[in-house]
């Protein structure tokens, strides 16, 4: 990428002071690691990790009938979403391809939508083109976004923002944190309990310093964010999801809400409802490998005759399991949990096993636990 | 003995016509946590610059190239059990393979440690 187009995050200096190694990602200079990916990954799984995800796009979508307007593009039930509740959803094109994945929160009279960093400009254009006049998409450029993830995140955050521990998974609210106004939701993309914290960019350093002051929290880079989400079985846009994949192929059928399956009325509904009925041609699966060598994105999945039946879309080494894991799209007939798969990478063959995801159990804080 | 470095960040420690090859401390640091390392099979004839070994970090795969031509006479079996020794001791216990040099004059084009140390500062 042209270095002239690289932007800096509000916490750029802060990351460098913490010893981050910075790399270009999604148009920003971003911290890939501090002390090391494995140590940061395991720290997040055992304590609490602080991630800077300010590259992501934070949008406020306003206007009369905003829920119904967004439902024309997304397959989630937004009409039925209560105030302060989040839903994982997908921005779709007319053939059911995934334009982006996102989190949508009903926040009073508007929706707060968080989209991927690399796709945010295109998403905003797409939303502005497709939403009716009267619906306004406001890019909240002055907001930073932090994520505090891990089993000790709630105990750490509660004294700083009293009341946050009462939130359940996929619920958010307005709080005061380190003297700053913050929108905090119980959500994240690591498979752990945790929070995402939206604050004014000008307040980000004060908030980050406050969160890091305790013994329980360390800063975590993008490298561990990727290995954590992979272990959690969560797809990454641009790798496991793109316009060639539909929600059903991606094994994200849960994102097509019950009412929408009956009523349709979202972009690509004909194809997606057909795939729910008849099954997709390809499906996203998880796999594990014996040995230690990871099989990476782009590797081919072969059948018994050596013909290609799929591709690996994410592959890496699981620090929690101590073995290589990955995700692939394969012909649905071959997507059988427990079944063997042959993978080919740089001319070398690997025997993999298709397994249910997540690879590491989720520990979300749901109602009643 | 003499120690040389390549611009691909291999080191080669030469004693007579035998040489030990590994990756530099700079290289292991840039790769990050190493989770897999595969050295070439003994008996394999390597040409200078040829892909000789594979090293994988959590994030990415990289090749290790033969710094000079020769026959592989030993692979470091310890890498299979614990590839993180490449992170801990890149220029000693974390060696990859040993070679019998077929053309010692190829060493002339390599950097010594001081030249390598200066060179990586320019990267």
From TrEMBL, chain A:
Binding residues for substrate, per the UniProt record?
Answer: 196
Q: Nucleotide-binding: present as a keyword of the record?
A: no
Q: What class of enzyme is it?
A: transferase
Listed InterPro entries: GcvT, GcvT/YgfZ/DmdA, GcvT/YgfZ_C, GcvT_C, GCVT_N, TrmE/GcvT-like
> Aminomethyltransferase C-terminal domain: from which residue to which, for each copy?
283-360
Q: What does the sequence similarity comment in the record state about its family?
A: Belongs to the GcvT family.
Q: Which NCBIfam families match?
A: gcvT, PRK00389.1, PRK13579.1
Name by which UniProt lists this protein:
aminomethyltransferase
* Native organism: Sphingomonas ginkgonis
TrEMBL record, chain B:
Which branch of life, at top level?
Bacteria
Q: Write down the required cofactor(s).
A: (R)-lipoate
Show the InterPro entries listed in the entry. 2-oxoA_DH_lipoyl-BS, Biotin_lipoyl, GCV_H, GCV_H/Fam206, GCV_H_sub, Single_hybrid_motif
Lipoyl-binding domain location is 18-100
Q: Which UniProt keywords apply?
A: Lipoyl
Q: How is the cofactor bound?
A: Binds 1 lipoyl cofactor covalently.
The leader peptide range reads none
Query: Tell me, what is an example of a GO biological process annotation in this record?
Result: protein lipoylation
Annotated Gene3D superfamilies: 2.40.50.100
Does the record's keyword annotation contain Lipid biosynthesis? no
Q: Which Pfam families match?
A: GCV_H
Question: What is the similarity comment for this entry?
Answer: Belongs to the GcvH family.
Known function: The glycine cleavage system catalyzes the degradation of glycine. The H protein shuttles the methylamine group of glycine from the P protein to the T protein.
Which PANTHER family did the record assign? GLYCINE CLEAVAGE SYSTEM H PROTEIN, GLYCINE CLEAVAGE SYSTEM H PROTEIN-RELATED
Q: How does it assemble?
A: The glycine cleavage system is composed of four proteins: P, T, L and H.
Instruction: Name the chain's protein.
Output: Glycine cleavage system H protein
Q: Organism, per UniProt?
A: Sphingomonas ginkgonis
Q: What high-level taxonomic lineage is stated for the organism?
A: Bacteria, Pseudomonadati, Pseudomonadota, Alphaproteobacteria, Sphingomonadales
Q: Which gene encodes it?
A: gcvH
């Amino acid at each position: 990428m042209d270095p002239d187009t690289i932007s800096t995050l509000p916490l750029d200096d802060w990351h460098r002071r913490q010893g981050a190694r910075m790399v270009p990602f999604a148009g920003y200079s971003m911290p890939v690691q501090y002390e090391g990916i494995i140590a940061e990954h395991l720290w997040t799984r055992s304590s609490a990790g602080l991630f800077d995800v300010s590259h992501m796009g934070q949008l406020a979508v306003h206007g009369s009938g905003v829920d119904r307007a967004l439902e024309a593009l997304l397959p989630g039930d937004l009409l039925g979403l209560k105030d302060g509740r989040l839903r994982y959803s997908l921005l779709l094109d007319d053939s059911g391809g995934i334009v982006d994945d996102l989190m949508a929160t009903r926040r009073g009279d508007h929706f707060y939508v968080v989209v991927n960093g690399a796709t945010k400009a295109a998403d905003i254009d797409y939303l502005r083109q497709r939403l009716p006049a009267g619906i306004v998409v406001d890019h909240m450029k002055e907001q930073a976004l932090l994520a505090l993830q891990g089993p000790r995140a709630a105990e750490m955050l509660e004294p700083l923002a009293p009341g946050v521990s009462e939130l359940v998974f996929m619920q958010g609210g307005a709080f005061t944190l380190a003297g700053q106004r913050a929108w905090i939701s119980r959500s994240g993309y690591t498979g752990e309990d945790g929070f995402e914290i939206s604050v004014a960019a000008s307040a980000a350093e004060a908030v980050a310093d406050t969160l890091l002051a305790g013994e329980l929290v360390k800063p975590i880079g993008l490298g561990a964010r990727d290995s954590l989400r992979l272990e959690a079985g969560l797809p990454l846009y641009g790798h496991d999801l793109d316009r060639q994949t539909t929600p059903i192929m991606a094994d994200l059928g849960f994102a097509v809400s019950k009412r929408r399956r009956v009523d349709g009325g979202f972009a690509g509904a004909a194809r997606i409802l057909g795939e729910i009925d008849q099954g997709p041609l390809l499906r996203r699966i998880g796999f594990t490998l014996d040995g230690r060598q990871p099989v990476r994105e782009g590797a081919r999945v072969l059948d018994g005759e050596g013909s290609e039946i799929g591709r690996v879309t994410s592959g890496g080494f699981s620090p929690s399991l101590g073995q290589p894991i990955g995700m692939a799209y394969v012909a649905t007939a071959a997507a059988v949990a427990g079944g063997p798969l042959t993978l080919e990478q740089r001319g070398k063959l690997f025997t993999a096993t298709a397994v249910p995801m997540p690879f590491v159990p989720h520990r979300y804080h749901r109602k009643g636990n | 003995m003499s120690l040389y470095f390549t611009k691909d960040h291999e080191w080669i420690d030469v004693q007579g016509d035998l040489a030990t090859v590994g990756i530099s401390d700079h290289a292991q640091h840039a790769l990050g946590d190493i989770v897999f390392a595969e050295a070439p099979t003994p008996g394999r004839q390597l040409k200078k610059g040829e892909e000789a070994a594979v090293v994988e970090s959590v994030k990415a795969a990289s090749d290790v190239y033969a710094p000079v031509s020769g026959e592989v006479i030993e692979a470091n079996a310890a890498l299979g059990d614990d590839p993180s020794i490449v992170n801990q001791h890149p220029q000693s216990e974390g060696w990859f393979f040993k070679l019998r040099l077929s053309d010692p004059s190829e060493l002339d084009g390599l950097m010594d440690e001081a030249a390598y140390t200066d060179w990586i500062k320019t990267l």
